[in-house]
Amino acid sequence: MAPRLVPQWRRLPRRRRRRPPERGGGRALPARPGPGAAAGQRHPVPGRRTGAQRCTGHLPVPCLPGRAPAAQPERRAAGRSDGADGPRVPGHGAAAAPGHHRGIRRVTLNPDVIRARCAEIEESVQRLEALAAVPLADFLADRDSQDIASYRLLVAIEAALALCYHVSSRRLRTTPADYAGCFGLLGEAGIVAPDLTERLQSMAKFRNLLVHVYWEVDYRRVHAVMQENLGDLRAFAAAVVALL
To answer: Using CA atoms, how far apart are residues 233 and 200, in angstroms rounded to an integer?
Structure first.
């Protein structure tokens, strides 16, 4: 049998893997532990905490030679303490929500929201006071005055409802079922007087009439609301500002 001829270009020498030179001037590197080595026999990373230190919350602090490291207190959850080894950490400064059976702490009100809504109430009330001075006959004959009065009443009542929902959600931790019920919650909590609560609930129902059944609005009633109930909106805004 004739020998098999192999082309010259296929006869390439094998490349040998060269060992990297030792670093550190001939200093031997530490051997890596095998798969069967224990976790405690591995070389620790400088500055890294051990498993026991991570569980207890201690952090090794370097110190000067000849001086002992300062003792570190254990970490403790904010607001929790058994009282045996230290004073209780104070929690949120707000008191519990009035009348709440679980004693949930009330959240602080937002002063920017309250100031903005009170400014809307005051601006609308001032415009409505000027329209309230117009005689009823002239008011019923002027469609522009009727539209302005309806819009400004809607803005003022909406701002009062926004204040009501802000207080009920942050202080009472309750979401009312409807607009009239929101004022009722503040009345039950003692934030608003009972007689003022009833008048505000009537204004909330009047707001629904302005929004949903605007084609049946009685402008005689609009004129009466401007003459009799504008002070209720200011009184409610003052009661909310007193909570800050």
So the answer is: 8
